[in-house]
Write a structure and sequence with these properties.
The protein is mainly alpha-helical. It has one domain (31-173). Helices cover 82% and strands 0% of the residues. It contains two helices and no strands. It is rod-shaped. The protein starts with 30 loop residues before the first helix and ends with a helix.
Amino acid sequence: MDTDGAGMGSRQNPNLPSDDTQNPDVLAPAPIQNCRHGNRGGFRAILTVSFQAMEQKVEDVLKLQCEQRQKLYEDSSLQILSLNRKLTADAHQVKNQAENLATMFMEQRKLVHQSLTLQKERMEEFKSLCEQYLEKLELLRDSRGNSVAEELRRLIETLEMKMLMVNRQQESAAAAQQSLLDLLFS
């Protein structure tokens, strides 16, 4: 197809020299393109080294973070273990003190109970003595003194009889001793 019409571009022969200023793409590779094409391998090498360096840095950072996390975990574990031991020791101490206090409380409760029982018995004895005293006081008041004299006479007679019995026992004992001595030395 041969087109001579307006607006249609003519075909160019690739073997013919072209105008370099009009169409830069058709030109032979420019020095920048040569440089870029030639340095493409160098750029790749630089990028590869850069990526490797970045990967190494990332690995180093991750390794450092992992080591720091491990150290933090170990430190935390030791602190928690130490606190747990202290809490356990404190719990045992509190338990022992509670048991000691409970024992002391029971002993004090027992002593208080014994003391109250003894005090109650003494109060009852005191009450009984007071009642006896009041009864005797009423008897003395009613008898107007005669019974006191009679009571004294009875007491004196009882004492005299006891003394007489003691003397007789002593005389009997002395006589028995004398007769034993007579038997022994005869």
